[in-house]
Amino acid sequence: MSILRLMICGLVALFALHLWPLHADADFRAGQRELFLQAEEALRKGQQQTFRTLLSRLEGYPLTPYLVGQDLERRLCPSLAHDVRSYLEKYGDSPVADSLRRKWLSELAKHRRWNDFLQDYTPQSNENLQCLYGQALLGAGKTEQAMEQARVMWLSGNSRPKSCDPLFEALINSKGLTRELVIERMQLAINAGQISLVRYLSRFLPAEEDKAWVAYWQSVNESPRLVLDRNWKGVENDFVIPVLTHGIRKLTRVDASRTAEEWDRLKLRNGLIGERFSAIEEDIALYMSLRFEDGALERVGSLPGDLRSDRLREWGVRAALRRLDWPQVLHMVDGLTERQKAEPRWQYWRARALEQTGWTEQALAIYETLAPESHYFGMLAADRLGRTYNVDHAPIAVTSEQMAAVRQEAGLQRAVELFALERYGPGRSEWQKALGRLDNAQAQAAARWAQEIGWHDRAITATVVARHSTDLDIRFPLPHAAAITIQSNAKNLNPAWVYGVMRQESLFMEDVGSSAGALGLMQIMPQTGKRIAGWHGEQLSDSRLLLQPDRNIRFGTTYLRRQLDDLQNHYALATAAYNAGQHRVKGWLPRENELPADAWVETIPFNETRNYVERVLCYTAIYEHRLGNSPTRLSARLAPVRPLNGSTQVAEGKEAGTPSPQ
């Protein structure tokens, strides 16, 4: 064994035996962090001797495994198998090893070391590695498992990496690529808008009739009304259901009510009846409900109960709510599954329907079960009973011994060090992975530790893992108090509402960016940030400026004020607009008569926005308590929602894109 290998193996073993001296003073910890950064820089520059010297001075430092892993990555080759496996055995269940494992697997695949690949493979989200795993199974003679992996990788609406080609070739050569698999992938591809992939897949359907159907399917994708003109009577083919469903679905997205009428005529004319068309029926009923169209409730009710999905069952309730048809609300709630009926949401709406239909005693009994809970529906139930909200603070109780023990958890130590170095993303990954190894009591101690160092988002997530929801100091912290107070006062906003929005938007993560591009504490889109800057007579030269907490809070509160001014001074409407856009909220307003605000919130078409509004309203009440005030009742804040006032200016929403209605 080489001297270098002995050094690496020795360091891995040594770091397992030495613990980070938590009693050390701040100067020592700062010095260790500086040495770590110097070692990283030396490794980056290829200064091996300097790196080794610095590494020897970092014995027991929590982030030293990162240095060892990075060094192994730079020198990867199959001959390092022993060193790599020693490292992965020690750290394999932690994020610190993820990068090394990915690169190691790629290295083994490059050298076609398939048995070694299978030995070191763990389930991966990386498509390339998933394909290489299939290749490894083939190379190791595990043909049956390889073909199963090939089928899994085949079923995608998007193109797969080149590394999947040998796997697919083996599937084809073994006669395992069936016509059904080809059509199923075509359906995934056309739903994903990958028309070029559909054309490519057609080569695996040699029959001329099949090729004609594929061409027709592509035409339907461009002109969905073609399905209404075709004679479907007596046509029996595997393409009938996917092509017909695709065409009707596209028409439904444009005008669900018109499509319902046209579909009824088409199926009557062509005898298109039976369960195989249930997906079309459900889609029409669902989109009529999502868009509050006349006849939506009847359409849902016309489907046999066993053909309704859970989603459609819920939208049956909402369709009845939108019409304030309380007997039908009760009927539709009774048609939910037992699992759904047990949810606080549907318990509340059952109680509301019972109350509205004269069954007051039964309604009050349900409210009594909900009112002690500190969630949105618990607060609504408390309002119906005239009770105060259950927002009492019960702090996490941990002993000094429990705190000392959790501070020795290596994954948490690494997370805290990464937090200190402002490497928040890797730090969160380490924290969450470590939390998964803790019991409830240990997770409570971890929550307290995160609170002590001001890592609010990880403290909150730890209380979730610990199943401890009553420590309000941890779950509802008060960071950035000065900025929030100043901006709330300047804009005549309730600071509790600002805190509620901020907690839901970012969990107080200053550095966070969403997949849509929203940034910072209040998750402001760059284009929206530029527009708000203009309102302030400023320019936003760089979208990264939105990550500055004070600027983000100033811009976010300005935008909240604009939503409140434009939308009936209504907290539910303004909150929904902050999430989904004011133009969408205006489309969700009742057309003629007022709608109770709780019913309006329930019938928001987007799951994300509906849940967002419910949480923010609940958090606002809790934050009022945290700020030393009596919580305002949700019912006092939720006036009936009025129909659209045509003179109200429509502004763009905070979020870009169009969320999928759910």
Automatic annotation (TrEMBL):
Ranges for the Lytic transglycosylase superhelical linker domain? 406-468
For this UniProt record, the keywords arranged alphabetically read as follows: Signal
Gene Ontology cellular component list = periplasmic space
Give the originating organism.
Desulfonatronum thiosulfatophilum
**Per its record, how is this protein called by name?**
Soluble lytic murein transglycosylase
Q: Which GO terms describe its molecular function?
A: hydrolase activity, hydrolyzing O-glycosyl compounds
Q: Tell me its family.
A: Belongs to the transglycosylase Slt family.
Indicate yes or no for the key word Signal.
Answer: yes
Cite the residue spans of the region called Disordered.
640-662
